[in-house]
Amino acid sequence: MQIRNFSIVAHIDHGKSTLSDRLLMRAGAITEREFKNQILDDMDLERERGITIKASAVTVLHTHTPAGGKPEQYMLNFIDTPGHVDFHYEVQKALQACEGAILVVDSTQGVQAQTVANAYAAIDVGLEIIPVINKIDLPGAQPERVAEELEQVLGFAAEECIFVSAKTGQGVDELIGQLCEKLPPPRGNPDAPARALIFDSIYDDYRGVIVYCRVVDGQLVKGQKIRLMGNGREYQITDLGKLMPRPTRVEQIGTGEVGYLVAAIKNLHDVRIGDTVTDALTPAAEALPGYKPIQQMVFCDFYPSGKTQYDELRDAMDRLQLNDSSFTFAPESSDALGFGVRCGFLGLLHMEIIQERLEREFNIEVVQTAPTVTYEIALTGGESIRIDSPSELPNLTHVLEIREPFIMMNLILPADSVGALMKLCEERRGVYRKTEYIGPTRVILQYEMPLAEVIYDFYDKLKSATKGYGTMDYDLLGFRAGDLVKMDILVNGDKVDALSLIVHRDKAEARGRKLLVRLKKEIDRHLFEIPLQAAIGGKIIARETIKSVGKNVTAKCYGGDVTRKRKLLEKQKEGKKRMKRIGSVDIPQEAFMAILESED
User: Fold this and answer.
1) Structural domain of residue 340, as residue ranges?
2) What is the DSSP track for 242-276?
3) Beta-carbon contacts of residue 395 (< 8 Å; ≥ 6 apart)
4) What confidence score (pLDDT) does residue 159 get?
5) What's the total number of domains in the chain?
6) What pairs with residue 442 in β-bridges?
7) Calpha distance 310→331 (Å, rounded)
8) What DSSP string runs through 358-427?
9) Contact status, residue 390 vs residue 502, Cβ threshold 8 Å
10) Is residue 297 within 8 Å of 345, Cβ to Cβ?
């Protein structure tokens, strides 16, 4: 039996999941009724949002007859990947477990930012790429124009592109034929000691950790004693299987095949994505290369609220991290909010998904602080440290300079939106690099920008400026020094660490003023006056005041001596002074999220 391993990659909403379902149907793995259900997107969130969040690996058997040849059976192992920029790490993991990739492009939208990023990621790993132009059944489809764009931007010959409609099934048989004939078989030595690459894992309450792996050398057999090379721990395989697309038990997984194993692994932290599984009795000499360390881009704090306890939050985070190794967390505490966790994410959508999964899957309620990026701090002693929260910034007398992360951003947009986008990028401290035309009406703009200027509302502004047609993709360039300062927010004279920000000095005053106006709207009036202040070091740069709740203490005085009224008002004033000194201010979740709001 011949084996072919490939990934399906594309920009968001170009039809990867529908094409995956159509391939499953053509191979007889699912019925026509199941095809309509986006079968590989099994998370509620994926179905509701219409996006893929987790890559899904599946195996199907297909009989292919080449022109003038004999029928031969093929095992097709393929991975449906996410398209959003935040989940690019999932795509990179999937590509390293394959020999080929299907690059899907929407025939009505053409080449987009993630199309380019995914194509280069596949080329970097050395994969054979099959370009596919999807949605040719739509009235606005222009497959020939899109094929020319692919040739111009990525160098694929226009005549090599396969035109398909995943919805109707047109062209899918030709695609399957190309997969069988064009993609190389897996490399690997069946007689060598077993080596398998872990590319994903999930936790099951009854079976422990379920490990998804690609066997590179040798084979895995039920009952075999295995060793995880990262930590040296040994286990015995109790169950082996493949997703076809439903879990199907097998006795062994051979060289080049993809499947899952269960080995009574109870500790969540024993399994690491990118680790190598080998035979415990005759182990391999060296581990597989694995994956590049994940670079978290956005950080924020989660604190338990409502009935949720810290221990429940910590346990839920442990479980989520096994299922999604691309986010990290560490204990954190705050004077205002108590004990919580500091989390690192790949982007804002990733952060939103994790918060929603906490609430849905684990029934956890959290207060979330405003997101920040990682900063590199050069100290006067010569060493450098990295911080992911403004509260961690050392005393400024020991700081030589603050460096912020810069990204190289590629924007694909209509030519008539270039002026508006260039203005937006320059407002966000962007440095222009180049413009490239990919047709008479579409342009690639390239800018170097600080990541902190992008993570909040840049994507929304991009969509507004381009009437929804603009797309973006970015890569981290490194850290660069800037004129950055820490801006503290004081509520009733007390610093609230969770509201602190690191901002560019030129924007600090305007940003502080806007933030205080938002906070004033979000924090309820109390029985005493609450001053809100923005400060850099000891200098107050902006102030707003929340007036106290008024009570008419003289309402019961009908006439009489004015001194009686004055006495009551003085008594009220003394009470408010005392209250201001000892009263505490309740800060709602919306106040922390006010920092996120658009700066307009």
Assistant:
1) 298-368
2) EESSSEEE-SEE-TT-EEEEE-----GGG--TT-E
3) none
4) 86
5) 5
6) 414
7) 10
8) HHHHS---EEEPPPB--EEEEETTS-EEEESSGGGPPPGGGEEEEEEEEEEEEEEEEGGGHHHHHHHHHH
9) yes
10) yes
Listed in sequence order, the residues at least 6 apart from 415 whose beta carbon sits closer than 8 Å to its beta carbon are 437, 440, 441, 442, 443
Please state, in angstroms and rounded to a whole number, the distance separating the CA atoms of residues 86 and 294.
Answer: 12
What pLDDT shows up at residue 118? 84
Q: Residue 327 and residue 314: Cα distance in Å, rounded?
A: 14
Handedness of CA 380, 384, 385, 386 (dihedral sign): positive
Grade residue 169 by pLDDT with cuts at 50, 70 and 90: confident
Together in a domain, 161 and 72: yes
The amino acid occupying position 106 is D
Residue 585 tokens read as 């201010």
Task: List the beta bridge partners of residue 178.
Answer: none
- The CATH number of the domain holding residue 427 is 3.30.70.240
Residue 337 scores a pLDDT above 80: no
pLDDT in tens, 354-402: 888 888 888 888 887 777 888 899 988 888 898 877 878 888 888 888 9
As a whole number of angstroms, the distance between CA 179 and CA 127 comes to 13
Retrieve residue 197's tokens. Answer: 């690459």
Q: Which residue from 464, 454, 449 is spatially nearest to 417, judged by alpha carbons?
A: 464
Written as six digits, the tokens of 100 are 């080929």
Compute the distance between CA of residue 256 and CA of residue 244 in angstroms, rounded to an integer. Answer: 16
The whole-angstrom separation of Cα 505 and Cα 19 is 49
How far the first Cα of the chain sits from its last, in Å, is 61
Q: Do residues 270 and 122 share a domain?
A: no
Q: What is the CATH number of the domain that holds 104?
A: 3.40.50.300
The pLDDT assigned to 507 comes to 84
Residue 593 neighbours by CB under 8 Å, 6+ apart: 368, 370
Question: Is residue 156 located within the same domain as residue 271?
Answer: no
How far is C-alpha 160 from the geometric centre of its chain's CA atoms? 33
For residue 513 the two structure tokens come to: 């003023």
For every residue of 274-311, DSSP letters joined together read T-EEEESSS--SS-----PPP---EEEEEEE-TT--HH
Name the nearest CA neighbour of 302 among 320, 286, 290. Answer: 320
pLDDT tens readout for residues 53-84:
555 678 888 887 777 778 888 888 887 777 66
User: How far from 102 is each of 48, 110, 147, 328, CA to CA, in Å?
Assistant: 25, 16, 14, 31
Q: What does the block give as tokens for 570?
A: 């003085």
**Under DSSP, is residue 107 helix (H, G, I), strand (E, B) or coil?**
coil
pLDDT score of 133 = 92
